[in-house]
Amino acid sequence: MQRRVSQVFSVVAVIGFGAWLYAEPSYEPAIGLLVSIGAAVHQLWPKKSKQDYAILKSEFFAINARWNAEKELRPPNLDDAKWLLSEILDYLQTVRIEISEPEFHADIDRLFLKVKEAQSTRICLDGGVSYQKFWKDGSDSIDEVALLVEKI
So where are the chain's domains? Predict the structure, then answer.
């Protein structure tokens, strides 16, 4: 509704400044007409479609495939795994910028924290408990990002 009202007022501004410029040719109505045309174009420009997010989705699935390969590697490299989690954080940042729908922002912010917590897990000499926790938390957070990506 808000967007529709903004579109209507943008078009009304273009018509109004155009009429003013026609009735009284000077720089003031010309500037107003240029600005209102810019606003109308911005308001009437189509929003991104779901197909526009295909590249963004494929980027995530590439990172996810590398994560799964790292888990299967024997022995897995924790530094590389933590680096992949940082790539997931970068990916979430890109998604938050690209997605204009605010209903996704809360989920993205929650996932930032979850991935960051998994990334900052300290591996200790505790019989593999912290090691298993790292891989479980990392996989769980990446699975949640996958669910979010599917909703987009």
Answer: 2-44, 50-151
